[in-house]
Amino acid sequence: MHGSRGAALRRARSAALIGLAVAVSAGCSGGDGDAGGRNGAAAEQTARPPGTHSWTSRPCALLAGAAPAEGFTLGSTTDSAPSDAREDIGENGARPLYRQTGCLADLKAPDGTFWKLSTTASVYEDAEPARHAYRVKEDLDRAHGRGPEKVHDAAYAIPADDQGHPGRTLLLWNGDLVLTVSAYAPHGSTEHDVRKELERIVGDAARRTEDGLRDHDASSSAP
User: Fold this and answer.
1) Pairing verdict, β 73-80 and 165-174
2) Burial (Cβ within 10 Å: 0-12, 13-18, ≥19) of residue 194
3) How far apart are CA 112 and CA 97, in angstroms?
4) So what's the pLDDT on residue 219?
5) Is the dihedral of CA 193, 194, 195, 200 positive or negative?
């Protein structure tokens, strides 16, 4: 088991680093106008060599202590952290276990309007089941015509909407972690006007959640 975990982490590390190099290169080139710069910035926030991660009963605490975007403040939060492990449907009949933790938060914008932020982190027993779960999500979003917009090799973004609240969702695979972050602007906002703020919010929340769940000792010693 440890041998397969090490091999999976080595493969994932190579994929993430290659993806980061490609995404940052695209962001610096400016060939796609402002979109290229946005994707490059998002990749810098979310693409990291994979590591092992731990479940937490206080996921909202990972978002505290810094502004989710310039001028925004974190308001009321609600933790969602069932302690029981769940069973996933893996490849070839395998049923890997994972534990899930998430946060729902209110954000106050500089103009006084309220936005929504949610995070859902699934921590698997190994890296390979996490990779499979991420690919299944990506295939489903593609099949339903929701994109995806690649951020780097192991992350993508899709537009979101919640009863007239335009939003953005970022999905990220990193080692044994599958992370979903969504943010929603106030009702009546246009996607074009709020896209930059949504990108900054989901990118920052993804970076801080991944870093807060990461076992830095284990990741630094992984082969």
Assistant:
1) unpaired
2) buried
3) 42
4) 45
5) positive
